[in-house]
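Same chain as my last thread, 227 residues:
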Amino acid sequence: MSRRLRRILLTFAIIGAAAGLCAFGIGAWANAAIKRRARGAVYHAAADVPQKPVAIVFGAKVWASGPSAILKDRLDAGVRLYQLGKVTKLLLSGDHGRREYDEVNTMREYVLRQGVKAEDVFLDHAGFRTYATLYRARDVFGVKSAVLVTNEFHLPRAIYTGKAFGLDVVGLASDTRTYRSWARNQAREFLARTLAWIQVNITRPRPKYLGPGIDITGDGRVTHDKL
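reply #2:
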């Protein structure tokens, strides 16, 4: 290898390393900003959560046999809020972008078996991402105030995004165990928070689907599929 080629490769390596450090620095700053905004808004017991009109339960993996462990715990936390009278409606938001994969109806079936009234259950079939869920909660369902129900690692991003959309939100951490995917979720969340900061403050994309307004104070059965 010639000396000139070595210098070129070294230059590119230095530029690449500098770019990587810069990206990491931006990500670290964005993560810190998101965590600061969520401070004081995270609860660990349903009994301590202030009353809100609705709980937004974020979707997660479902199997043919039912919700995954991580999703089951989120749903249980949402049902507990409902049973305690902390909320009067549940907005179940998840991925139903394909006929063969349906998070929201699996979630609906689960909470109905726990005694939640069908008319109090709303389904957001296009909650593909946290950003889309909260954007649609505001612009489609007319949500102004809510309890966000998800895992503790996810709550800062959800709360930050909700507040950025002008929503009055707090979060209930749904964790009851150590999940098999815990380490992977922690690593992914660093990148997800960075992207959330960019979306909220710079790119401001519209969700893939919006659609006509649905009154969150009304009858949730208007959002239900036939089972």
